[in-house]
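pipeline stage [seq->struct] | target=IS200/IS605 family transposase | organism=Finegoldia magna | residues=131
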Amino acid sequence: MINYTRKKGIVYKNQFHIIFCPKYRRKVLINGIDDRLKEVFLEIAKDEEIDIKAMEIMPDHVHLFIEFDPRKSLHSVIKALKGKSSNILRNEFPELKSKIPSLWTRSYFVCSVGHINEKVVEKYIEQQKGV
């Protein structure tokens, strides 16, 4: 059974897999920066009411599996995660400022995470013809 999040006036399952990289895909998320980034993401998530289901910090990219209230825009959630983490890490780790002009690239990858796949949806739609 799927566990939906319930809030006043809304029931949802709004999950996304997000990937983004440091500027120039530099391998700067190492030597304690990766551990601190995890802490920072959890702090931001708490402030922004984002549920981080899974997180992996690689030297040159970040994977996040998140869920949040669909009344928030996906772009604003990503902007909060990237913007706030960049400010904090660049202040705490000055070496980042000398290696790259900004911590994150402007781009990101996002994929909605559902509990059914494309084939199931296609089959369901095809079956509706006879209903």
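stage status: PASS
auto-comment: The chain has four helices and six strands. The chain has one domain: 10-130.
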